[in-house]
């Protein structure tokens, strides 16, 4: 995915070399599970962002909480950076070793430790993926709803406070992580939260770690909320004359309190991409892809309400997917929109926005973003978790063109500034990483970022935990 | 409520005297809105906990964010404690000036600043009460669901991460606060969060402040999520042969995913108390008080499911309240259970537990708590937000009896230890305050509490923000 290309998307580096004594100690402790092979390091110095590969100096394949704790203790001793790595699907440069150091690959920590079906909770290791957890609980009539496009690791999803298509009904990782085991910067194991559904017991450390992008600790166990599989599920697509009409339909549904489970917008370009790859033969107009969960009667009732509202906004040609197979095919196509769109412009790269705005401002923001991209003459497509006010416009650019890159970043900047101006956020679900550090400062203000910096300094005084991400540790 | 009584429930004090120069500066800045009158200070040195009055040295009646910022700047300059005060309804000694200092009464900061009906958000000052916010938004077809028993201030509810009867469906303050304006320990104003429904932009400062009990900053503006008033609402009571049967019914409902809005348990003693005060003439057996929200058809469907499950567990004598007046009467009675129970033993005081456990363990925990109280011969009643796994057993004790006090505390201890042992929490919604500092340490462990302490030191280096609450700043 990140093959070398003519122009440099190399992030600013400030390398802290790995002392030979530390590498030796890691080899002693981890044997073959410590690798400094170039290929292994390169593989761990990238994610799905457009940045150049920025490898760590060694990769440790951790198999237990004790492995993580021991590796972090050595990193603490030698004041060397540590970056946790799940499946590498993050989008904003989170995993790049911009200060060097070691990568902790937790993909072998992939056990579902306990399912408490009667309490609707599950405890997993961080390398378990979202598809794996669902596969392991399905026969108990349960599911875990958070579904970023990639088959991400649960640890990574905690790190970026991920969400996806089901968040409109079930919330994000913020609402669905109950408890954590975390290795602190000094290599100590602590626990945050409990399996109780709510608690007022002290500072909400769980929520502090969720979304901290590996900068405050390394998660080694994660307890999640589960949900009973709905008795009835029905999915539908509906075509609209414009993106605005589709979004207005969504706004009306949310304001009425319809408990819709998924409500996704695809613009005509995204539909074209999906058709090219998935051969669904969809009409290439703006489209809502929706899903309803509940009892059969309630699903029926939601469907009727939605059809009525959609028709008022020019929605037509409802198609229903009622069998699991039909539904899976539709949702797989939606999840692959990112890769599908690559087919529109083979060889391209994408730069993707991730703003989330108060729902009443969504139609304006979507329409303006589309118009600006069209005016700028950049190929693009737009998909949106519109029930949440979150959308992604992806600019497809020629990786060899510095000018296209700059043009896409300028469009991204306008989308973000518009979102911030109307009370929204620069990132709904992808996180800050390297790419949005400037935007975070604009959004949160220097005072709030200074507070984040104080917390980081207090919990990680040597700045070893995924340093250089979210904000710079020294005020500008 | 907290009239003097023969035995001392005086918390440990470590007073930091107010320098005369600071008092003078406060008087200069605030004029008559700075009071050091004994009666005013006493009124602000208490809450609904059984502790003795522990007054601050002065009370500032703040009317704006700038007032709060200026008062905190002076407190910072003189390293003097600051305690924010809403309506004084907290239950665990949160408001007691155990290290002296000044109280910031924010009850005059009681404006609803903006209602964004189309985005389902509202921004309020911290002194607005939950009843006030609901009164001001009702005509727009909206409501704010979080309802601790008292008519608490929104600022106080944020401080303790409050919940109440609707949390089973709508979540707690953790899920329903979108953004804050906060005065930091140095008197700076910062903003956390946005009006977007979700965000991955940096550390979740909003969630860090919610539940921090005034120890990390003073909230001056709060943005809340709102909900459309449900199209149909129906409330019901159902009588059960035992608490266990009522709880088993609840467990089955939750496990089935029935979207019940409220599900409250009252034991027979609580029903007796409610009857004494509210003359409802209820059968004095364990009882569930439930409410269903949704479309008329979905409410009907939920009601049928619940009746079926309840009957399987011996539930009988369903009574439905369908008019708003009937419903309000029932819920007012429930909310007044605390005061009603006082009628059972006039002159008594209550010590109330607040554990929350994984739902599958709830029946065992409720039954054991009841049995222990009965065995100990202490009058008591039990109410529970059982849909969340949260219950309160209140021991009614003679305030002049040190022995009864000790017996009640011992029972509380057993309830908490049982909750922690089964993966639950010592406090579901009341907070830690002074009373549960030891329990927090048992529940979270020294490592997690040390992390809270590090955060506190980083954000409040002079330990001026409600010091001496949640944990002691120096490790034991």
TrEMBL record, chains A, B:
InterPro entries: FAD-bd_oxidored_4_C (IPR004113), FAD-bd_PCMH (IPR016166), FAD-bd_PCMH-like_sf (IPR036318), FAD-bd_PCMH_sub2 (IPR016169), FAD-linked_Oxase-like_C (IPR016164), Oxid_FAD_bind_N (IPR006094), Vanillyl_alc_oxidase_C-sub2 (IPR016171). Its cofactor is FAD. Keywords: FAD, Flavoprotein, Oxidoreductase, Transit peptide. Transmembrane segments: none annotated. Residues 51-229 form the FAD-binding PCMH-type domain. SUPFAM superfamilies: FAD-binding/transporter-associated domain-like (SSF56176), FAD-linked oxidases, C-terminal domain (SSF55103). Its EC number is 1.1.2.4. The keyword Transit peptide applies. Pfam families: FAD-oxidase_C, FAD_binding_4. Belongs to the FAD-binding oxidoreductase/transferase type 4 family. This is D-lactate dehydrogenase (cytochrome). It comes from Sphaerotilus microaerophilus.
